[in-house]
Amino acid sequence: MRGMPLPYWRLSAFYLFFFAVLGGLAPYWGPYLRAQGFSSLEIGLLIAVLHGTKIIAPNVWGWIADRSGHRMWVVRLGAFVATLSFAGVLVGSQFWWLALVMTVFSFFWNAALPQFEANTMNHLGSAAHTYGRIRLWGSVGFIIAVLAFGELIDRHGVDILPWLILIAFVGLYAAAQVSPEAPQQVHSRAAEPILRVLFRPEVAGFLLACFLLQASHGPYYAFFSIYLEDLGYSSSMIGLLWALGVVAEIGLFLLMHRLMPRFGARLLFLLAVAFTVLRWILIGALPTNLPVLLFAQSLHAASFGVYHAVGIHLINRFFIGRNQGRGQALYSSITFGAGVAVGSLGAGLLWDRVGGSMTFYLAAATAVLSLLCAHWALRRDETSATASV
Predict the structure, then answer these.
(1) Tens digit of pLDDT for each residue in 284-311?
(2) What is the CATH number of domain 10-384?
(3) Which of 143, 299, 354, 367 lies 20 to 30 Å (CA to CA) from residue 77?
């Protein structure tokens, strides 16, 4: 750190409310859309829109933030417009209207997180390995939203969902106002041109592995709740299953500051992808076996927790100085944007044709491709790092 106290709770509050919004969208938006009468393909398209704006938005706002040096201005603007535009869901439920509303609010909502991640890493400085202790509050916000929203939906019906998410958006806007801007880190070496960094084989290979892994999550984000609903699970039970995964994720974040120095980024990332393969196979094969499903959900600690902590760590190392914001934006857009959008759209096309189980098996196959890419890219990265010493 640079002698300044870490604004732990103000940073944590932003993550709490950002992921509380996600806690409403991820488990319940698919069932909400189906309740409005949309088909599987239309649901897949709308979920793809939600994630597809991450392809463009973080890069546009990352360029602005890196040029201006004012990341929190971008975060605050994004939170304000996202809150205002999401209220449009309350106006109508026609397909094209929802597509427009989801495009606008997600364009600004998705702009905020990568810049806030860069801001958090600048606050942490040399203590970047403790990132998980702040990020875990995002997981807490997700769990609170998932459990509370599920209970309220069971009592009052799924039409209450937009109001609940809007409340979480208001909290996000308030948290963005109180989160402080960190001075940008000064690096001893000048930043390379960003395209040169991006096309280094180890960086491009790593981002491709991340893209494939997140594409494998498409069926999960778009249809997991619908999958369970069709098998007879209640909204409360579905919420509990989502929450279990995030409880496991919290435990992982609390341990990452010890695991990363001990085992290294490469081994942890490869294990995360391998456990993701296992997770999708189990969900596809034995969704009615509750103990197996509980175990599969606990693997979220690896498939998201380890994956994301290592991803943020490596991107922060690959992209330095004036490239930092755009590096985080590229990571977000290529993986959580393009990856999940392609996976969601693919799931929408496949779901009614091949069924839920086969769709999850195909997700497992996609994760295997990610494992192969990651093995090659991170081995090359280790070789390059050794050679430069």
Answers:
(1) 999 999 999 999 999 999 998 899 889 9
(2) 1.20.1250.20
(3) 143
